[in-house]
Amino acid sequence: MNIIYKSLSVLTVLLLTSMSISHADQAPLVKDAYVDGTSSQANKNKGTKPVLWVESINPKYGLVQFDLSAFGGTVSSATLVLNVSVVDVPGDITLHALQSSWIETNVTFNTTPFFDPIETATLAVTGADVGGTVSIDITSLAQFWVDSPDNNFGILLLTTAGDVRFASTETALGATLEVVTDGGSPPPPPPPIGAAISLSSVYADMDNGMLYIYGSNFDNGNPAVVNLGEMGELDQLTPSSATAIEAELPAGLLAGDYSLLVSTGPNDGQLIGYDLTIGATGATGATGATGADGAAGANGSDGVDGAAGANGSDGADGAAGANGSDGVDGAAGANGADGLPGLSGFEFKLLSFGRDNIGVNDGMIVNVTCPPGKTAISGAYTLQYYLTSPQVYAKFLLVTSQRNGANAWQFNWRNIDTVPHNFYGIARVGCAIVQ
């Protein structure tokens, strides 16, 4: 059995501590995540990944929420600061106020919370920003959260022409929100986060693909979460106890140094880091000596040969029968229906839409056009809640949702209420090359 053991030499304990907010301070980061709209990832949670991924081609959104309950009075300024990890495609990132609640460890693309289709702010990100920070002013939105804390569900980050990754709170470089106010009451002390988490030893069993972690206080209110470097969160064989965690190592894990992170407690407030070295598999041992041959068994006695029987005489050949006449050829069967055309280069095309004061029995027609050379395959849409009339979307009837020509998709809604209404949303159309 190939077992690698590393005793603890240096442990870095990261604990949330109480803060004193007067007129200028950072708002606590409550949670962050990103969601992935590719077909194989749309139902998977990304709340424990080390990045907030924002992309247009394979749509990905970033979600961030801060706690501003400790701030009061007038917000003079509020600046969101993001650390840029990767820029594969430069582009503009738009910020949208979220309008419904979400859970960091459960949210997926298919359960993306409602958000305001009108952006709060726009941030340009280029390759020159990698390894540094970008910042953007969200003072008006922060003032809204201070005045209406029940409506603070956080921010959604999206792009229509970019591919950017920001550092998440799973690293030491998560997003920050710098808030300056001209008054307000000091914040209450933060809730207790439980006894300090600690590690005593870690074993990596490469033969069986298991990681064994031993220590104390792994059960401070929340189940412990284990992240291994860029491999992300590890699946646990059994729920963690207060003193032991059994997690499955990723298939094909190579030898090397990995950053192990264990978190628990309210809002995963108890964190502990550990540098884990996975050693290479040792050389195969020498083959043992061949054992001595066993004694040969005794041969059995030969049986008596039976007498050979007499050969019978050959019978006469029968006369060959006459060949029958050829039958009539049957009619040819009908050709089968043509098979479906193949698809390639599939992508989503997004379009935000909206109009105010749509009259009674009046309609809203939205056309989404695919890039040149691609055919519109399917259409979908998301309608947005509004705080003043959250059920407005129910007053509109979807009359048609169909292809409009070869490379466009058309949606047609009609106001079936007795009074005018505003109507906003996002249309998504699948586009592909039909072969």
SSE order and pairing:
Layout: E1 3-7, E2 12-15, E3 24-27, E4 29-36, E5 51-55, E6 60-66, E7 75-89, E8 91-97, E9 121-125, E10 133-137, H1 139-147, E11 155-158, E12 163-167, E13 176-181, E14 198-205, E15 210-216, E16 225-228, E17 244-248, E18 256-264, E19 270-278, E20 343-358, E21 363-369, E22 375-383, E23 396-403, E24 408-415, E25 421-434
Antiparallel strand pairs: 1-14, 2-19, 3-13, 4-6, 5-12, 6-11, 7-10, 7-12, 7-13, 8-9, 8-11, 14-15, 15-17, 16-18, 18-19, 20-25, 21-24, 22-25, 23-24
Question: What report would you give on this structure?
Answer:
With 435 residues, this protein is an all-beta fold. The protein folds into three domains: 3-10 and 191-278, Sandwich (Immunoglobulin-like), CATH 2.60.40.10; 18-181, Jelly Rolls, CATH 2.60.120; 343-434, Immunoglobulin-like, CATH 2.60.40. The protein is built from one helix and 25 strands. The strands form six sheets. Strands 3, 5, 7, 10, 12 and 13 form a six-stranded antiparallel beta sheet that branches. A five-stranded antiparallel beta sheet has the order 4-6-11-8-9, with no helix packed on it. A hairpin with a 5-residue loop joins strand 18 (256-264) and strand 19 (270-278).
